[in-house]
Specification:
The complex is a heterodimer of chains A (about 110) and B (about 130). With about 110 residues, chain A is an all-alpha fold. Helix content of chain A is about 75%, strand content about 0%. In chain A, helix 1 (about 15-45) runs antiparallel to helix 2, helix 1 runs parallel beside helix 3 and helix 2 packs antiparallel against helix 3. Chain A is elongated, with a radius of gyration of 18 Å. The termini of chain B are far apart. In chain B, helix 1 (about 1-10) crosses helix 3 and helix 2 (about 25-55) runs antiparallel to helix 3. The chains are: A mainly alpha (about 110), B mainly alpha (about 130). The interface of A and B includes residues 13, 18 and 79 of A.
């Protein structure tokens, strides 16, 4: 980091490191949810929804990965801009996609 | 209400109020947001897993109902995460009390009720068999 905040090297709480690990954990959780979504689409979806769902799941994963990666490049600075709303939106997107697949398999 | 939703989407607006806090507070707030988000993702993963790995339950469509409930709950938790993060950031900048929230209690209640219902169905299954 070129622009380290004052006193970062003596931060006893290891805040940047903890934050970086938290971002990584969240990225892994996204990957798990994406994999489960793709599997549900492949095994339970109908032909058309299957393709759409798999594509959407991959797109959501790409967004999630891009956002978390951009954020983890600056571990000592809080994520700015729209990182949080984007991540929440991706999560809601997975919930919606799951609903679509579960209810679609019923009907 | 509308201002809060606007702040969800444009967190930069927060920079106009209060003073810039110690960066560690902002990082802690971000970690709390991420922990809530993972809670939501775990609920969603549970909903997705139930839909595809659980064998059909004795009551018709109960499996799908549980799955839908978990997915909706997960989405709600994700929205709560952003809301909470924005409100907390505002409180930190203004030096006021952290916003009170009933959400954790409601979530705990929902999970507990869901678990009890599942216990009831398992017992029902055992009784019917025996």
């Amino acid at each position: 980091m070129s622009r380290q905040p004052e006193g970062l090297d003596r931060d006893p709480g290891l805040q940047p490191e903890r934050t970086r690990l938290a971002r990584r954990r969240t990225g892994l959780a996204f990957a798990v949810v994406a994999a489960l979504t793709v599997r549900l689409a492949l095994t339970h979806g109908m032909a058309v929804t299957l393709v759409i769902a798999a594509g959407l799941a991959a797109a959501l994963l790409a967004v999630g990965a891009a956002v978390t990666r951009r954020a983890s490049r600056n571990p000592s600075r809080p994520s700015g801009g729209r990182t949080m709303p984007m991540l929440a939106l991706v999560t809601v997107g997975y919930a919606g996609l799951g609903l679509l697949l579960v209810l679609g398999a019923l009907g | 209400m509308r201002e809060t939703i606007r702040q969800w989407w444009n967190p930069e607006r927060l920079h106009r109020i209060g003073t810039r806090p110690d960066y560690r507070f902002s990082l802690a707030n971000e970690r709390t947001f991420l922990a809530w988000l993972r809670t939501g993702l775990a609920l969603i993963a549970g909903g997705l897993a139930i839909a595809q790995f659980l064998p059909p339950l004795p009551l018709a469509h109960l499996r799908e109902a549980i799955s839908v409930a978990l997915l909706v709950l997960g989405g709600a938790v994700a929205l709560h995460a952003v809301d909470r993060w924005v409100r907390t950031e505002r409180a930190i900048r203004l030096g006021t009390e952290l916003p009170p929230s009933r959400f954790p209690a409601l979530l705990a209640l929902a999970v507990a009720v869901g678990a009890l219902l599942l216990v009831a169905t398992v017992l029902l299954k055992v009784v019917r068999r025996g």
